[in-house]
Amino acid sequence: MAEITLISGSTLGGAEYVAEHLAEKLEEAGYTTETLHGPLLEDLPQEGIWLVISSTHGAGDLPDNIQPLYDQLQEQNPDLSGVRFGAVGIGSREYDTFCGAIEKLEAVLTANGAKEIGEMARINILEHDIPEDPAEIWLGSWINLLKNA
């Protein structure tokens, strides 16, 4: 099966935990994974499947460890037409900018030609103490979309 590159952007580690948990579940489903926490563009394959997981920091801001990747995507406009991706956002509905970081990442990826598989998962930490649980439920549906894509 295909290799999936998991990319996490995290301030306090929550998105990293979710990425590692989803990588484990993907491997159990027969996929090969590589998990990168806050990679740069040159660290990523320019084709294949990406799964982007990010928490939102402050007022809709990207976590510090994924901001450089976002900046590179905006400045370099790489051809990502060979990339298909899924997106998981973690945030608090108390803020108007709920899951703002993953929405910014989704927008810059699609602007550079990447094709999104399915709908983004938006996890509200006020409802889910353990964000891995709703992320795993979402992943089950996403894997089905991968098989049919």
Listing every helix as H and every strand as E from the N terminus to the C terminus, the arrangement reads EHEEHEHEEH
Q: What is the CATH architecture descriptor?
A: 3-Layer(aba) Sandwich
Helix tally equals 4
Largest sheet: 6 strands, parallel
CATH class: Alpha Beta
Over all CA atoms, what is the radius of gyration?
14 Å
Indicate the proportion of strand residues.
25-35%
Approximate shape:
globular
CATH homolog superfamily: Flavodoxin domain
Distance between the termini: 13 Å
What is the helical fraction, as a range of percent? Answer: 25-40%
Weakly predicted, low-confidence segments: none
Structural class: alpha/beta
Return the domain count. 1
Q: How many DSSP E strands?
A: 6
List the helices and strands and how they pair.
Layout: E1 3-9, H1 14-28, E2 32-37, E3 47-55, H2 67-76, E4 82-91, H3 100-111, E5 115-116, E6 121-124, H4 132-148
Parallel strand pairs: 1-2, 1-3, 3-4, 4-5, 4-6
Can you tag this structure with a few keywords?
alpha/beta; 149 residues; Rossmann fold; single chain; 26% strand; six-stranded parallel sheet; 6 strands
